[in-house]
Design a protein that fits this description.
The chain is mainly α and 81 residues long. It has one domain. It has four helices and no strands. Helix 3 runs antiparallel to helix 4. The protein is globular and about 40 Å long. The model has no long low-confidence stretch (mean pLDDT 83).
Length: 81
């Protein structure tokens, strides 16, 4: 199973930091990216969402969240062999 940023981010809502704040705001704004039939650049789609709801700290929080997500995604790939 390939980890998707949407799933990862929604599981971060409990955090008491900027990443948790971002996860709660994105969910509340119903800004979750929906899949399309076309292969999308997941990072660009999410960056567009964050810019659209941009408030101080959200862009930095997104950058941190994306780094953490990529590390977790890589660890999951390595665990699968």
């Amino acid at each position: 199973m390939i980890l998707k940023f949407e799933e990862w981010l929604l599981h971060q809502q409990h955090r008491e930091d900027f990443v948790g704040d971002l996860a709660r705001v994105v969910d509340r704004q119903d800004a979750i990216h929906k899949s399309s039939r076309y292969k999308n650049d997941e990072h660009k789609n999410w960056a567009d969402i964050v810019v659209r709801i941009a408030q101080p700290g959200y862009i930095e929080a997104f950058n941190e969240a994306w780094r953490e997500f990529l590390l977790e995604k890589q660890a999951a790939k390595e665990a699968l062999g």
